[in-house]
Design goal:
By secondary structure, the chain is of the alpha+beta class. It folds into two domains: 122 residues, no CATH class; 83 residues, no CATH class. The termini are far apart.
């Protein structure tokens, strides 16, 4: 089987947000080699990475078996329509090697989320990141929400220690409600009020819409 490759980059952003992702895989997309770098990242101080909410590591590589859910995702990327640089302002640059033409993907928030989720999944598979965890407090009871990007699995641990799977697409909807600068969040110490926390120390108000997504 012939090998295939993809180089995907977003270098119109300032560091540490600019990135370059290179993939090599066999035709069945099972075994994959991944390289990722962050142009200009070596010029930043560690506190600048932390302030951006990112892990201060760059220029790393991993190879291994890609889970089926991400094999299907990668195949779907081939259907993305590309344009020339003159047709776009902010975009991802895609180079499919010899298989498909090189071009630019007009910026699309949902596609950006899919790309970032893929990178997060690879970081989990490589052991560079743990699955994302979020503490949820509702009516004085604590719940744990865990997002395993490597498997596209979202699970809520209930008060009786049982677990409840949630639709994976609920995660992006939830993050759109809570992923904002800390200065824009409302701190709450009322244990009866819906709240969430990243570290278990400081809790922020959780909107009613988020509770519906969590199916509490």
């Amino acid at each position: 089987m012939s090998n295939q490759s993809l180089t995907l980059s977003r270098e119109d952003l300032p560091p540490p947000y600019a990135y370059r992702l290179h993939l090599d895989w066999a035709e069945d997309v099972n075994q994959i080699k991944v390289k990722i770098s962050y142009p200009g990242a070596d010029q930043l101080k560690e506190e600048e990475w932390v302030e951006a909410g990112l892990n201060p590591t760059f220029d790393w590589a991993w190879s291994g078996s890609l889970p089926q859910v991400w094999q299907e995702e990668l195949k779907d990327w081939k259907n993305w329509k590309l344009e020339t640089k003159q047709q776009v302002t902010a975009a991802h640059h895609l180079n499919w090697g010899a298989e498909l033409p090189t071009g630019y993907l007009p910026f699309d928030q949902k596609k950006e989320e899919r790309i970032q989720s893929f990178i997060q999944a690879i970081r989990e598979l490589a052991g560079a990141e743990d699955p994302m965890q979020l503490l949820i407090r509702y009516k004085g009871v604590m719940y744990l929400l865990e997002a395993v990007f490597a498997e596209k699995r979202l699970v809520l641990s209930l008060k009786d220690q049982s677990t409840k799977p949630l639709p994976w697409n609920h995660l992006s909807q939830l993050m759109s409600l809570i992923a904002m600068p800390e200065s824009d969040l409302i701190v709450t110490q009322n244990k009866q009020q819906p709240a969430f926390s990243w570290d278990g120390l400081q809790f922020f108000f959780l909107p009613e819409k988020a509770l519906r997504l969590l199916e509490i």
